[in-house]
Amino acid sequence: MPKILIVDDEPDMRLAVKNVLKLRGYEVAEAGDGPTALDTLARENIDLILLDIRLPGMDGIEVLEKARKIKSEVPVVMISGYGHIQSTVDVMKLGASEYLQKPFENVQLVHTVQKLTEPKVIVPPPPREVPAGSVPGPAHVFRGFSFRAVGLALVLLAAVFAYRFFSGIHSSYFRIYPAASSNISVLLWNDKELWAGDWLEQALYRYQPVKGALELKKKYALGNVHIGGFAVAGGNLYIADAWKKVIEKRKLDDALTLVKSFGFPGRIGSLSYDGEYLWSCDSEGTVLLHKLDSELTVAAHFRLPNRPDQIYKTKRELWSAVSSTGRLYKHNLDDKLSVAGAYALKLPLPRQPLSAFTWKGGRLWLAGDGTAEVYEAGRGLLVKAAE
């Protein structure tokens, strides 16, 4: 995805714009002043600059002039809360690509970024006219046609047919694995191992797939920890305990040694890590994005109407599950994490295994409270349901 440089002296403004862009998959760099912005532009591969006009010391117009000398091809969107017409004229003359006036809508921001970062469509030139009488006959056309292209087309058709055939089988895949515990509250794939948390035993189990089975590698007894959710992030294990209203940070050692406990007002019962932010969700459906700093600082928050028991963040969407209704929800990565679809599980089982779920390789892994089993299901077993 394109990388956007946000240049603004207000940290809150940078954070707000960053959240909007990050949720849509963009990479983001930040600068609070002109010199930092120019240094970042020179060192990093920046695809677009969002530049505030009013900056301390070196103002935005001066930054724009210098930026054009460093990398003239990078588009620049000037931003101002003052709306001076002369500023608009000046920055456009200096080479700014667009001009946004505060306060602007998120939709306007995203539209502007998309317009300036999407690949340009190259329109082919019109065909050259061929003089009358010089049009080649059928034999010439046939000889000029590449048999290699015909072979390639056949290979592609065969590949499409094979994909549709085998993906149909894959999407309806279902398998049951015996587990060592029957009160699974969370599932997590950590590299090639499946980790499961048991809320009643207050223990964590590590499994490794071996010859079509889940082989138990290790069990960790955590003592007085009611495991609602956990995530591996930044080389540590984070565990949510809704009863204590804390998120624990633990080392990934043989004892899962406790490093620190973070208190939060809500009863956080689910965690997920997307490679940058730790996502948490409490019993009221409040979703928080935490920075991996010394305080798990909240960078953004949202409210889900379905009040899920579990969440899982993928690259393109957020998934949530409600155990009481047996529903899975797919959420858009927009400002409200709006629901893109509600799904029911079409499984050959008497109960809905929704005490825990996670994704891996396009398949859904599930567990049901009171059942010492883990289930693997293809996407085809998710059917649309009423929201």
Overall structural domain count: 2
Can you count the helices?
Answer: 7
The CATH class of the largest domain turns out to be Mainly Beta
Q: What is the mean pLDDT?
A: 83
Shape verdict: elongated
The largest sheet, given as strand count, sense and whether it forms a barrel, is: 5 strands, parallel
CATH architectural grouping of the largest domain: 7 Propeller
Strand order of the largest sheet: 2-1-3-4-5
State the separation between the terminal residues, measured CA to CA. Answer: 31 Å
Short description:
By secondary structure, the protein is an alpha+beta fold.
Output the keywords.
Rossmann fold; 387 residues
What does it look like?
With 387 residues, the protein is α+β, with helices and mostly antiparallel strands. The chain has 2 domains: 3-117, Response regulator (Rossmann fold), CATH 3.40.50; 171-385, YVTN repeat-like/Quinoprotein amine dehydrogenase (Methylamine Dehydrogenase, Chain H), CATH 2.130.10.10. Helices cover 22% and strands 37% of the residues. It contains 7 helices and 26 strands. The protein has helices spanning 11-22, 34-43, 60-70, 85-93, 106-117, 138-144, 147-171, and strands spanning 3-7, 27-31, 48-52, 76-80, 98-101, 174-178, 184-190, 193-198, 203-210, 213-221, 229-233, 236-241, 246-251, 258-263, 268-273, 278-282, 286-290, 298-303, 310-313, 318-322, 327-331, 339-345, 356-360, 363-367, 373-378, 382-385. The chain has a 5-stranded parallel sheet with strand order 2-1-3-4-5, sandwiched between helices. It has a 5-stranded antiparallel sheet with strand order 19-20-21-22-26, with no helix packed on it. A hairpin with a 2-residue loop joins β9 (203-210) and β10 (213-221). α2 (34-43) runs parallel beside α3 (60-70). Residues 133-145 and 158-169 have low confidence and may be disordered.
